[in-house]
Structures are given as C-alpha cells and as structure tokens.
Amino acid sequence: MTWRRGYTYSTSVKIAEGVTLPTIDAGCSCVGACIDPRICACAKLNGSDFPYVHKDGGRLIEAKSVVFECGPNCQCGSGCVNRTSQKGLKYRLEVYRTPNKGWAVRSWDFIPAGAPICEYTGTLMRTNDVDNVSGNDYIFDIDCLQTMKGLDGRESRPGVVPHMDDRTDDKKTENVPEFCIDAGTIGGVARFINHSCEPNLFVQCVLSSHRDIKLARVMLFAADNIPPLQELTYDYGYALDSVTGPDGMIKVLPCHCGAKDCRKRLY
Question: How many domains does the chain have?
C-alpha cells in the first residue's frame, strides 16, 4: 500500500544494502509449545522463565532489558506464547490528524496492559549512513544496549543478557547506536505514534531470530490498560540539547503532549 508523498506502508523491516543479519539462532527443541522453562533454551536466555503469560493472546509480564523469543529454528509451533510479538496487529488501530501534533494513532479496541501493539518497521541501516541533512524525523536508533546500561538518563530494567559482547566499555562508542530504522519513506503504523512525557506505551527490544542486541527488533507494548479511542503514545527518549542541526547549533522542539508533568520540550 502506497500513501501520499511517496510513503509506502510495510509491516516488515527492510534491510538496507550493506547490512547483513546475524546467523539464525539454533533455537529450542520444545515440541508443540514451550511449557517448561527449565528445559526451553529460549526461556533460559530470559532467566529461566517465560516473559509472557497466555492471557489475552499473550501479555508481557514486565518491561525487560531484552526479551528472547522463539525463532525460525525452534521446534515449537506458531501458537507458542514465546512468539507473542511476532503475531502481527491484534487491535484495530486508526491513524488520524490532530490539531497541533500532526498525525497520531489510537485504537478502536480496549488494550490490556502488557499487550503488544506494533513493531517499529522501516529500513534497517547503519546509523552512519543516515542523511542528517534531509530533515527526516522518523529515524529510530536501535539503542537497546544503551537502555540495558541505563545510559543517557534511561531507566535500567531487569534482565541479564548472557554472552553479550560488552562494547559499552569503549567510552568512544557507548552512546552511539550502530544501527537504526529509517521509517521516512517506508514503514508501519508505529511511525505515526506521537511522543508523550507520560506515555501509555513503552519500547521493548526483542530478539527472535538471532541474538545480536545491536540489531534487535523494536516493539511497542501497552504500559497500562488503554480504553478505546485514547491516543497511543510513547516516550521518544531524547535528552535535552541532544539534537543539533547541519550548522552544529542545538535544535529546540516544543512538546505539545499535554501531560501534567510535560517537560515542555521534546529535545
């Protein structure tokens, strides 16, 4: 489906030229569905537990540093609860126009806390290849590693990632994500979701086919029970004075989220 101004809707991530995805993980040997976390290889990566419960088709119990899901080489079926984020859109989402924030997204359905909403899709590319002069506001840095470490004011989350290459010890690169998702010309409904200083969604890094956190899938989950027709929002996570223009000057963008404790600036 092609929208106006050259935008193409896509529910999957496209891979830019020059980017190679890691080898697909061996996966678990569970048959039918993953039930016992003591023997499921994927559950062991999640601290020997499953991150989801079966209720409402699968709900994330809590926000984690990273969620390891079952993938292409796992022996369990598509109905396994540990594939919750891979099952596509479950709720009727509407993109609509707002008076002062441009496009926005809401659901026609009630959404329970912990439910997966959508994946941030677009073109997966190296951050260094992004054209910073084009004015593209739909770049999502895959900064899961920074979130794990609680860098740049991020709130640390539970969960330990085993066998990780701890590259954040390099002070020159710890604040610079290597990869990003560019939804400027191609992407899904997530790119229309606005920022809020008091959001009802949260960003969750998910690994399902490989185990490289730098190339994790970016999912949005419900932080609270969300009634029908309430705008869906998440915190974009900008640090103040962190965005500069082509001239090197700090850019300032007012925030119009309307939250009680609004920070007044997006960046």
Answer: 1
pLDDT value at position 252? 86
Helix/strand/coil (H/E/C) assignment for every residue in 246-262: CCCCECCCECCCCCCCC
Residue 245 lies in a domain: no
| Domain-embedded: residue 86 | yes
Question: Which residue, among 118, 85, 251, 239, has the nearest Cα to 187 in the 3D structure?
Answer: 118
Q: What angle do CA 197, 228, 106 make, to 5 degrees?
A: 55
Of 69, 65, 67, nearest to 80 by C-alpha is 69
Give per-10-residue mean pLDDT for the chain (267 aa): 68 94 94 93 94 94 94 94 94 94 94 97 92 71 75 59 47 67 94 94 95 94 97 88 76 88 87
Pairing of strands 67-68, 186-187: unpaired
Q: Sign (positive/negative) of CA torsion 105, 215, 86, 186?
A: positive
Assess if residue 256 is contained within a domain: no
Q: Which of 194, 204, 266, 188 is nearest to 232 (CA)?
A: 194
Report yes or no: 75 and 39 within 8 Å, Cβ to Cβ: no
Alpha-carbon gap, residue 258 to 163, rounded angstroms? 42
> Would residue 257 count as lying in a domain?
no
Q: What is the pLDDT of residue 27?
A: 94
The domain that contains 153 carries what CATH number?
2.170.270.10
Q: What pairing do the DSSP bridges indicate for beta strands 194-195 and 233-234?
A: parallel
Res 175: pLDDT: 60
